[in-house]
Design brief:
This protein is α/β, with parallel strands linked by helices and 154 residues long. The protein contains five helices and five strands, in the order βαβαβαβαβα. It has one domain: Alpha/beta knot (3-Layer(aba) Sandwich), CATH 3.40.1280. The relative contact order is 0.24.
């Protein structure tokens, strides 16, 4: 099993970057985690749809062969932390790799969402990609602690 976070853009704020790094480090205690950061598409001279298409295409190219794709999107399915832990446990039990895709400022294309085995909502509101990545990393860490019965999740 491999867990991949494929995200458009790098954290710009050093404090937020440090928080993301910390939760990704913690999550690696429980999951073999790889992070793929893709440069944001330039918005100069292109429409938001063109930028979204470019970013989604580049994300799709970086998803490991055979991995289940999970798209993080505000219109996705809402799951609790415990339900997310069960989902991650199922991936582990089935020895299935999973790749989480986080879009940039323009989101992701419907074709990438359609290709996904799941579309998950990280929050009921729109999050900047840096915040989405932090929330996902924290939830991966939390899922690991839930599955091991550790006291982090109250």
């Amino acid at each position: 099993m491999q867990v991949v976070i494929a995200a458009v853009g790098k954290p710009r704020d050093r404090h937020l970057a440090a928080a993301i790094e910390e939760y990704e480090r913690r999550a690696r205690r429980y999951w073999p985690l790889d992070v793929i950061e893709l440069r944001e598409a330039t918005a100069r001279g292109v429409t938001p749809e063109q930028a979204r298409e470019r970013e989604s295409t580049r994300l799709a190219e970086r998803i490991p062969e055979g991995a289940d794709l999970v798209v993080c999107d505000e219109a996705g399915q809402r799951v609790s932390s415990r339900e997310f832990a069960v989902l991650m446990g199922d991936f582990r039990t089935r020895a299935r790799s999973v790749a989480f895709a986080i879009g940039g400022a323009f989101g992701l294309t419907s074709s990438l969402r359609d290709r996904a085995s799941r579309v998950l909502q990280l929050a009921p509101w729109t999050l900047p990609h840096e915040m989405a990545r932090l929330v996902l990393a924290e939830q991966l860490y939390r899922a690991g602690t839930i599955l091991r019965g550790e006291p982090y999740h109250k």
